[in-house]
Amino acid sequence: MNKLEILNKKANRIVLSVADDPQSRYKLRYEFYQKYGNSLIKGSNGLGNSELAFIDWEIKRGVLNPVNATQPGSLWWRTVNSHFLYLGTLAQLIKESGETFEEVPTPVNFWLDYINTPNECSWYRAHNSSIISGYQLADSLAFTENIYEQYFINIVFYRLLYAQSIVQGVNFGVLGKIFANPRGSAVSLITDIEAFYPSHYPLSKKDITYVIHHVHNFVGVIENVLDTLFIVPHLDKLYTKAAKWNSAPIVKKFVKNNQPLYPITENELNSEHFNNKLTTKKTHI
Fold it and tell me: Exposed e or buried b for every residue in 21-33, given b needs 16+ CB within 10 A?
């Protein structure tokens, strides 16, 4: 067994050890940022704040619960999060081993880049490429979620890519710059707003009316501006650029004609039936 295989097995063991303990999942990433994101690295204080806020929201929502819990977690959300943890943990183990390896997953290389040069751009590449990899891995599991949850998964995804676009220099205005800062508290504030990120799982038809801007109050207006004006009209362009930023061509399969297509299967990707189903999701839920 070579050194990379040893580190790979160790990363998998670490992630498996926290799989059924949501708080330990959080702690694993918190401790990562204590080393590679906070005051121990000059100039990088706060990198990772948005990620930790999002994981905290996942915990409160219950999606990371064990599948056999009284309130069962989600196979899809758990798998995406576990894969994310694995990629970051493997990068950390490689860094701390002092070794270099050629054959590692692209997100692991991006995490190593971030560890060596921590800034907003390197963080987003590492974070988003890992999430994309998780979405790809868990594609079939997304079909086990109800139609409202599937639609919400797409919203979470394109908002994440939108935040990265601000850092990459695609200007969508002041609002986007605030939301895109991985050091700031905006994500923590947003995930506490029910209209942005509902606090329970799974979503119902009633819940999705909040998520897709059918609430006529101030929060609903803000969300409508964020999605309808800044993001959705540019999804094709956004996903194409994100595929390049994150070295992840699969992202381009997640959208067509500015409509999100996740989850996908090869035989449904170009199917008129599948496109109609997505349109139905948006207009009739």
Answer: ebeebbebbbebb
Burial (Cβ within 10 Å: 0-12, 13-18, ≥19) of residue 232: middle
Q: Which two tokens stand for residue 36?
A: 């590679």
Q: For the whole model, what pTM was predicted?
A: 0.84
Residue type, 118: P
| Short-list 77, 78, 85, 216, CA closest to 149 | 77
User: Which whole number is the average pLDDT over 225-229?
Assistant: 59
Secondary element (H or E) of residue 209: helix 205-211
CB 140 within 8 A of CB 260: no
Q: Quote the CA–CA distance of 67 and 69 in Å, as a whole number.
A: 6
Q: Reply yes or no on whether the pLDDT at 276 is more than 70.
A: no
Give exposure, 199-221, as e/b (b: 16+ Cβ within 10 Å).
eebbbeeebbebbbbebeeeebe
